[in-house]
Amino acid sequence: MAEVRAEMVANVWKIVVGEGDTVNEGDTLVILESMKMEIPVVAEDAGVVAQIKVAEGDVIQEGDLIAVIE
Amino acid sequence: MFESVLVANRGEIARRVIRTVRRMGLRAIAVHSEADADLPFVREADEAVLLGPASPAQSYLDVEKVLDAARKSGAAAVHPGYGFLSENADFARAVIEAGMVWIGPAPEAIVQMGDKINARNLMENAGVPVAAGTREPVSTLADAVRAADEIGYPLMVKTAGGGGGIGMGVAYDEKSLAKAFEQASRAAARFGGGAAILLERYIQRARHVEVQILGLADGTVVALGERDCSVQRRHQKVVEESPSPGITPELRERMLAAAVRAGEAVGYRGAGTVECLVDVDRQDFVFLEMNTRLQVEHPVTELVTGADLVEHQLRIAAGEVYPVEVAPSGHAIEFRVYAEDPKRFFPGPGKIAVWEEPSGEGVRVDSGYVAANTVTPFYDPLMAKLCVHGATRAEALERARAAVAAFRVEGPKNNLPFCAELLDHPEFASGDYDTGLVSRMRS
After folding, report:
1. Which residues, 6 or more positions from B185, have their beta carbon under 8 angstroms from its beta carbon?
2. Of B85, B126, B329, B432, which residue is most buried, by most CB within 10 angstroms?
3. Which residues on B lie below 8 Å from A36 (Cβ)?
4. pTM (2 d.p.)
């Protein structure tokens, strides 16, 4: 199980995958926006998306849990 | 002269404009979002009006809210700063129609220059050199591929209405063109400015050199020298200097003359910038775009000319007729202090625990924050501009090294370590660099 956490304060602009989706290493899970820049959050390993813990429009803090990949 | 100015912007530029407005004895009115209520520009204005929530669309980009604030506060004039509504011709028209003075060029000039395709064609007709590129908007990938075959790779792909490097990408072949085209289209849809895409021949070893112009109230246009903005990451400027260490006096003279022609071609009034790309190997240049507003890096020009560009903007907008003599002296460099990590340049907003600005001879800091403020993720990452001036480039570099070392910021991530690294880099130190410098430093 791998936890994907935010590297910075950001707004959640777009959720790209859904719970239950199979993802490969490097696939974009969600796209954050901070300071007028789009920041894709990618899967570090292949697996199944067990949980998405954020919603579009959320403001998240550094270290917040974004997703869980199993 | 009008009696009051509403500054329709935030952060360092709002603070900088307010400083001149107040020095001239005029009333300064700030507007701000909820997220910015504690920033210095709000406190330093004579009056401040809350616009709304943090989101730019609900605050600084909301034309009705800004106009409402201007009417309620009795503002006589509106200064738009840069970004946000500064190049929005509808906003400029609405300000004028509401009976206030618009501190900027005529809305028609904003429209003509705002569409980069139109601007390119207009400049070519005025005898200003442009790069090989599309003369009509490109709206589909198939059209882009056809145009690319005609112009030849590599190509720069950008949005006709965008700015600030957002959505720009280089295409080396049909495959990377598809990617760049998709990226530019998405940026155009998200950040506004219409869906039209523009393709231009990409110059491999290029410097980005721009000319500051002033269109005076009597219709004459003067050039206040150039700024070299070749230190860029993600097509956004990080460091600017004047004079450019990469152009010959002969090329400088041709560029300044072309910039004056560009301004005259649109009947330009006020402060504007003619951006050019210089082909380093051929010592030749092409027109890139014209920014119809005050530029972030205007302090570089102020340091070498001794001019206060905001004061010029106000006096020209008020219709004052006076001569402008230009006698540049010494060398100036500006470092943009961004809230971003110094390795990958990813945003790093946060609460400021320590903020200590350098000072001393030849050092100027334009900042938007003080200690205990929070740099939020809602706006661009510029926290401050560290500017130095010296009699020579060597003296300016020496002052820059000391000032960068003395600037203490803790809390948000910041690129001061990158600025120090750049100052130690042989290419930058020699002055012989191009727009690829930062990517070479990080490859």
Report:
1. B159, B195, B197
2. B85
3. 164, 166, 191, 379-381
4. 0.93
